[in-house]
Every structure is written in C-alpha cells, then in structure tokens.
Fold this protein.
Amino acid sequence: MQPEQVIQKVIEIAKEAGEFIRQQRKTFTPDKIEIKGLNDLVSYVDKTAEEKIVAGLKNVVPGAGFITEEKTINKTGERYNWIIDPLDGTTNFIHGLPVYSVSIALQEFDELVLGVVYEINQDECFYAWKGSPAYLNGHEIKVSGCPTLDKSLLATGFPYYDFKKQPAYIEIFTELMRNCHGLRRLGSAAVDLAYTACGRFDGYYEYNLNAWDVAAGIVIVRQAGGEVVNFKGGDECLNTRELLATNGKITKEMLQTIQKHF
C-alpha cells in the first residue's frame, strides 16, 4: 500500500474515533472519571476510542505493533509500530473545554514516517508522511515566517505531576513571556504541534511528555518546514520527555532561554 493510501485510511480511522468522542461529550458526566495517578485522568471514552483505533489500524500495515497510552493492546512490531493517543487533552474533554484531539503516528524502526492529528471540535485534520508536504484538511500548510522571538506567539504546557523541575520551568516561562507577543497553554500537545506546523504558533516547548503525546505532531511540524529538537538541541525528542518545536527561525533564541534555566 502506498503512503497516500495509508494516510487516507489513518485519517478515516482518526475521524471515526473523533466522532465517537464528540458524541460521548454530549452526555459525559464526572462520575465516569477514573484516576490513573496524580491529576492523571481517564475515562471509558479514552479506552473505547483507543480500541476503535487499534481495530481499524490492524490491517492497514500488517504485522505492525502498537504503542498506546491506555495500554488496551500489548504488541510490539519488529519494523513498524503505531503510536497512539486516542484522546490528547483528556482533562479538557472532562471539563468541557473544547481543545482535544486524536493523535496517530507510524514509526518504522526508529524513524517516524507518518502522523495524523485530528482536532475534534474544529474538525481540523493535520497530517503528513515522510517526503510529503504537511496538510490541513487537504490544503498544504507551512510553518510561520516569524523571524525573531520578540515577534512570536508561543505555546507551552505545564506538568501535572513530577514537579521537581517546576521552579526552573517557571523561570523559562517568565523570561519568554517578557520577550514574545504571548504564551498560550491549550492542554493538548498534539494540537500545539499541529498549530505550530500551520503557523498559528511560532514555537512550542514542554517537558514531561510521552511518545504518544508528540509522535504525530513531530512528523507534521518537520514536514511543514519546522524544527523539532530536545532541550539540548538534539534531534531525538520522541523519548526524551522534552521537546521544542519552532518555525526554524527562532530555535536558537528559544534554546538559549531554555538552556539558561533548565
């Protein structure tokens, strides 16, 4: 199957899961919340959406394994693995804040080769694969042309557990806040990356991240012409739990601030 055919199948699966999530939000109540850990929430919606995604993907790339947030399947592939967050922004979903998404990536050995982020409330599907442009609902997208940090709009996220690095992180936040047009915190890393890919944000940084939070977004940003690095400036950021994504023009300035404090 060609990459274009694979991506269309993944888009269909992501949208089907998104429609399920959209419908469940209409009747969702707090008594359906489960606690995985400190401020780490989940519900039947996450788990059922993941099961639907896994079932849909099983025949798209035969033999592929799955790396999933909710661990509804335990299977690792030798060559290919799907990396799935069925509902990125669960806390937003639970509270009725309309920023959450489905995130699906495909990894070949150690390389990310495909990514789809479906933002459910805006019905916006961002996607790209190795060697392709990045797209939003069929239209090609590129990162912004913002030349300097002082003209940028940035996004970040805040840790909800493991607060050991919080003081240093707040120092980064404070310095960046004083040297850009603004900082936003939407609550879905996948959406933050997608919005960086299409130029709504000029840069995004966060730590305490998991592979399923960022895998698809990494592909989309890079194929849109952006840069994605870890806080040391290296290319490996899928499993380092820290990530900086930019339009490529403000990477150096942002890294200088991050490395000064972190």
